Amino acid sequence: MVGPVLAQAQTVKNGAIVIGHVDSLTSAVLNEQRKVWVSLPASASYLAYAKQRYPVVYLLDGASHFAYTSDIIQRLSAATSSVFPEMIVVGIANTLRTRDLTPSRPTSVEGMSPEELKTAGGAEKFTAFIEKELIPYIEAHYPASAHRTLIGHSFGGLLVLNTLVHHATLFEHYVALDPSLWWDGEKLLKEAHEALAQPHFKGRTLFVASANTTGLDSVRAAKDPSVDGQHTRAKWKLRGNLARTKSNGLRSTYRYYPTDTHSLVTVDATYDALRYIFQPYMLAPAEYSTLFADKPTEAAAAKLVAHYQQVSARVGYAVLPPESIVTRLAYKFLSMPGQAPSALALYQLNLQNYPASPSAHATMGYYYEKQNQPDLAIASYTKSLQLKETPIVRKKLDQLQAKKQG
């Protein structure tokens, strides 16, 4: 075990740009050491004081997809974007990929050696490792919530669907990127057909991405005997199954990417999948404009609370208005004539939701300072510094105290 490092999602260390770190754990289930790549949200370092817990994306083929997935999440969860919440990314590095990601062992596969096939079919054991060892480890050693998303590509997509079909409650959201449903004569596809007919998927989300694998039109792809042709037809069958089973509680979508090959589909589809899962997380432009009334009002804070209550109901866990978004709105109100009460309500909302956050107390101090209430500003800055020493807050406190004494 290397252990967690609470740091920003992207930092510079010794001249290198760092987006995460490598951790490891010993698996009794798999009887081997397993490495995971971990990326923490930018706010994890300072919100550690507020005991913030973050949703987790578990990423199969972690070494291949870790960098761009972490970057997408960091960029689109930033305060200026907030398309979805900040998340922890856990990339699971491979040891024996075919063993871990395939749910069965066929007798032969085009392009695959008998030696490689001997290891196939270990998906259930690998899933047991994730459920009984990896998830408990991550939730014990990192600020991770129990809200989980599983993303996999190709064989990884096959494992994603196998997990949904046989262990639906393990994750809330499932993202299968061009899944290899052709495997073993479409065995899993047949199991999925039966499982999807049952009402066992309430609160679960499935995003399926389909690449243009064959480069053929649908008529020729329907007759193509190659693995690529089998791959395409198996995905069509899944699309049909999803279209026919709308009463099982599963929220699902199937998207075709005509200009992306099997290898290229991952980046665009990961972006689309995360936006689909968490929509609507941010306020729409029309909703945002309603926050700014012509006269002083505390309604902006109430509207934010109501919006994130709706988000919570949709994603299945409690989502508080992000501190950074609330602070940005409060600052804008404070700069508007006569809107100090609106700003105050927002700063107070942050204190209510994040009472142990140094920045929540510091911004409250800023409000009081602007309102010529030095005693209250001093108290807020002092509280912030008790939680975390920050040079800029220390400077403001010293200036206020010197001014009061002089």
UniProtKB/TrEMBL annotation:
**Keywords associated with the record:** Hydrolase, TPR repeat
Q: Does the keyword Flavoprotein apply?
A: no
Each TPR repeat occupies one of these ranges, namely 358-391
The GO molecular function terms of this record are: hydrolase activity, acting on ester bonds
Query: Which superkingdom does the taxonomy of this entry point to?
Result: Bacteria
Q: Which residues cross the membrane?
A: none
Quote any Pfam family the record assigns.
Answer: Esterase
State the InterPro entries in the record. AB_hydrolase_fold, Esterase-like, Siderophore_Hydrolase_D, TPR-like_helical_dom_sf, TPR_rpt
Q: Belongs to which family?
A: Belongs to the esterase D family.
Q: What is this protein called?
A: Uncharacterized protein
